[in-house]
What does this fold into?
Amino acid sequence: MGMPVAVGPAGVPTRGEPLGTADRLLKLLDEEFPSPRVALHYKTPLQLLVATILSAQCTDERVNQVTKGLFARYRTAKDYARADPARLEAEIRPTGFYKAKARSLIKTGQALVSRFGGEVSVVVDTHVKRVTRRLGLVDTDDPEKIEFALQRLLPKGRWTRASHQLLLHGRHICQARVPKCHECRLYDHCPWEGKRPA
Ligand code: SF4
It folds into this structure.
């Protein structure tokens, strides 16, 4: 995934040109992850959010096996909010860390119901939080504010796909501890002071 990089004197990364419009961001994400659906299966933003929670420390293939049945039984955020913990734990057990994940799904469902009336538009998980902040797209860690900022920035038809691409970008490239800046398509536009020389 080589691309021209921006380095200043002595190999110090430059702060990058601002992304400006959403078009450039979307184009670069499309280049980086042309088929984001290949990994995790989902049809709605809520399903993507659930699959993402289940994917921690688990293969996408295993997650897809579990969500096949899960999505048929849990259709709305309310269904997760009201889930019986023991039953949900058993249903997601093959994905590992099932107690913590069941707690997280229930809490996420409850938060969605209380904050957004159960609707999910743009998925904001820990990866999306980190990536949007580093790229200077937002200036906050508050998932609700990030969601609104991305809604304003991105065309509605791209909300789900772009949030999945940002999530994959965080999972595979812009990782928390050691980001792979040398592989990053967004390098030239990344203003983060912690970015690594490519
Ligand atoms: S991988 Fe590096 S260059 Fe790319 S967005 Fe993250 S911090 Fe910026």
Remarks:
- Confidence is low (pLDDT under 50) at residues 1-10.
